[in-house]
Amino acid sequence: MWIIDFDAELTMNGILGFLENSSGRYLSETVAALQLIGAAKDAALLKEIEKQVEKINVETKIELNPYQVTSFEDRHSINEEALKKIEELADRLYLNSYDRKAANLPHLTPSLPVLYQ
């Protein structure tokens, strides 16, 4: 379940969307789930991202109005260095890596054909 949530958030909203949304509250559980299925690279990357998240206050700092469009930076107290590091680490996750797409990971999709070769 944690991996499905992570994959959906990462695909639709990127790493900052994952961290900000309710799925991000289960970052440690997501790391553990990735380790459990043998996705060691992504688990290690998320663990590093978790360290950087500690430097960012992800609690909303402004009151949002209905339909208001804002950026992650508008809504949170940001440590620019930590944010840059998170984005660099996220760029190395399976979703952004041609040779490590989820469809190519046999432990995630054992019965599906490889789609990205």
Q: State the total count of DSSP E strands.
A: 0
- Overall geometric form: globular
Tally of individual domains: 1
Instruction: Give Rg in angstroms.
Output: 15 Å
Q: Could you give a short account of the major beta sheet? A: none
Beta content: under 5%
Q: H/E element string?
A: HHHHH
Mean pLDDT: 77
Unreliable parts: 109-117
Structural class: mainly alpha
Our measurement of the CA-to-CA distance between the termini, rounded to an integer number of angstroms, reads 27 Å
Number of DSSP helical runs: 5
Query: Portion of residues in helices?
Result: 40-55%
What features would you describe in this structure?
There is one protein chain. The chain has one domain (2-104). It is 50% helix and 0% strand. It has 5 helices and no strands. The longest helix is centred in the N-terminal third of the chain and has 19 residues, at 2-20. It is an all-alpha fold and 117 residues long.
Secondary structure layout:
Layout lengths: L1 H19 L6 H10 L3 H14 L18 H4 L4 H11 L27
Helix pairs in contact: 1-2, 2-3, 3-5
Note the main attributes of this structure:
single chain, 117 residues, mainly alpha, 5 helices, 50% helix, 0% strand
Question: Could you give a short description of this structure?
Answer:
This protein is mostly helical and about 120 residues long.
